[in-house]
Design goal:
Blueprint lengths: L1 E3 L2 E5 L14 E3 L2 E3 L6 E3 L15 E2 L1 E4 L2 E4 L2
Bound molecules: FE2/S2 (inorganic) cluster.
Length: 72
């Protein structure tokens, strides 16, 4: 789960390159950088920056009554 300027986003945790843990990566604005080899993904859409045909799965997030709910 990522917090981008106060908005929560959720993606699969597995990088499409060699399975790196995206949740251990580096978030800058809406971009998550995989800690293994540096592939980058746009968190809101899941698109890979180097190849827009690749996309990690994203999940809808709803914040309600102070609780964060994820539809999976
Ligand atoms: S495993 Fe993520 S960039 Fe290689």
């Amino acid at each position: 789960m990522y917090n981008v300027d106060g908005t929560f986003h959720v993606t699969d945790n597995t990088c499409l390159h060699r399975g790196g843990p995206l949740g251990d990566g580096f978030l800058e604005g809406p971009l998550i950088t995989c800690p293994r080899h540096g592939w980058q993904y746009d968190v809101p859409t899941g698109h890979n920056l180097g190849n827009r045909a690749l996309r990690v799965k994203t999940y809808p997030v709803l914040v309600e009554d102070g609780k964060v709910r994820i539809r999976i």
